[in-house]
Amino acid sequence: MDTSAVLDIGLQGLWVAAKLAAPVLLTALTVGFAISLLQSITQIQEITLSFVPKAIAVCIALLVCGHWMITEMITFTQQLFEKIPSLLGGG
Questions:
Q1: What own/partner pairs with CB < 8 Å and gap ≥ 24 does 55-63 have?
Q2: pLDDT surpasses 80 at 34
Q3: Residues 6+ apart with CB under 8 A from 24
Q4: Which of 7, 31, 38, 61 is the most exposed place for a label (fewest CB within 10 A)?
Q5: What confidence category does residue 33 fall into, taking pLDDT thresholds of 50, 70 and 90?
Q6: Cβ within 8 Å of residue 76, ≥6 positions away
Q7: Are 35 and 54 in contact, with CB atoms under 8 Å apart?
């Protein structure tokens, strides 16, 4: 196993991690921005006002995208297992 194969696997792993984190992070970012905009307009500075809607939105994003996220992770894992013989020099 050479360094290019290790770097390739690492890059693929980072790419899958970024794809899996994107729906949750973008949802939290969007809801957080909307709530902070609402708080700055109305001058209501309540901590739970920003936390509760963001937590609910993240849960909804996980429910909507969960099946896709699991499918992506299974596909990546299967590809890694399929590469094992070639990485060990057997084929």
A1: 57/27, 57/28, 57/30, 57/31, 58/24, 58/27, 58/28, 58/31, 60/27, 61/23, 61/24, 61/27, 62/24
A2: yes
A3: 58, 61, 62, 65
A4: 7
A5: very high
A6: 12, 13, 16
A7: yes
- Residue 4 carries which side chain, given as an amino acid letter? S
Neighbours of 31 (CB within 10 A): 19
Query: How many residues does this entry show for the chain?
Result: 91
Amino acid occupying residue 81? F
Structure token pair of residue 88: 């060990």
> pTM value?
0.81
